[in-house]
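Entry for the shared binder. Reason: the reviewer on the internal report wants the predicted structure included alongside the sequence.
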Amino acid sequence: MIGGMTSISSAAFSHVGLCVSDLDRALRFYVDGLGFEPYARFDLERNVAEVDPPVKLTSCFIQKGGLRLELLHYYSPGVFGDPSNRRNQRGLTHLSFVVDDIDAAAAQLVGFGGTIVAGTRNVGDPDAVQTIFLADPDGTRVELMKLAKGQAW
């Protein structure tokens, strides 16, 4: 108990939601590029919390390992705003994936609509952790990380 309240430690992770401006483009990046698999798709025309009516959207769930993403594409009222572009900006800053070769993986994701974020490729000891950041087609940050030699994750 914390502060006299009962813990909700039985809560299970469900998913991460990403609002996208073009569902096909997002699926190309995440499914074709990063290897997610389609899980479920819902075409909805009903009011949803925090969105001004009338609402028409597609909710497309994809998954990889234990991570499930919900790609939300709003036809009405439409998509607005920009995702975080700084790691010290409040809220979700990035999704991260472990890869064997970050340069090859980054180049592949560029081919699927990603954009390398300038100045984010760390260089130095090839046996240390290596990272690079890309933006998905809507600007959501995606980190590619190569683990340090001998590092377990």
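Summary line for the report: The first strand starts at residue 16 and ends at 19.
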